[in-house]
């Protein structure tokens, strides 16, 4: 303790005994302080440190499947292959592998501590408050130089950058690129990123390192505990059963778990073994950054894991999914009326 206190005393700034010595200080601001002797200028505050994931975007574009969904297979074949490969290793090789895995775990821990995208709020991260004025007249789509089957958005012939990044917005499909271009074309006067969800998703995916995918799977599992697909509202229970039953049957057969049905208010009582089984299945899907970010956004919007997964695997289409998600709300709007400031905003979203 004495040593610690002595370090504090020694580290205190030692100011000169006379005001005239202040002239020797180096300053970087032009604001004078009129005290005694020569003027003293105050150095500006240091900007807040921004933590960014060290992601090589060019490497990411080379390794991400060009067709989103192509490699997201519900299979444990890759895990079985690795186990078989490890079983043939010598003790020395296994020891070397353990050291590599430990080093990888340390790197993952470092990246996860810096990850601020659990909520996928890319457009809400801290940055300059200056609004971007809409200056462009033409919006288009072009291929990404050096990366086959990748696209970007052009405004007046110039490539746009991802939100909160200096990297070009990279989009893995032409249809998605045109959807993002449409969002740019709909902007008026100032850029409103809250009205550009698809561009926001693509921007967020570019910041997701491989170490950041597993924590997002854990985030998805929080929706599994109280999934919207478990519950039925008594006035529209029959309609909900008709729409939700195919999803519940598919999920139960595919993931080999029980899907509860609760009329009104109740607790799903999901068994821990079911949670682990579903989590393992999600990890085995080997989703790319675009897929995991999109799935998280869909889970947030629907308060469900089952429904986005059903759309992902084409069990239901988008119109049906929206009908399922808002069946009770639409019933309340028909019987109780529309609440201004809530239902109208939901309709716009």
From TrEMBL:
One of its GO terms (biological process) is mitochondrial proton-transporting ATP synthase complex assembly. The keyword Nucleotidyltransferase does not apply. It comes from the Eukaryota. Keywords: Chaperone, Mitochondrion, Transit peptide. It is found in: Mitochondrion. GO terms for cellular component: mitochondrion. Pfam families: ATP12. Belongs to the ATP12 family. This is ATP synthase mitochondrial F1 complex assembly factor 2. The lineage of its organism: Eukaryota, Discoba, Euglenozoa, Kinetoplastea, Metakinetoplastina.
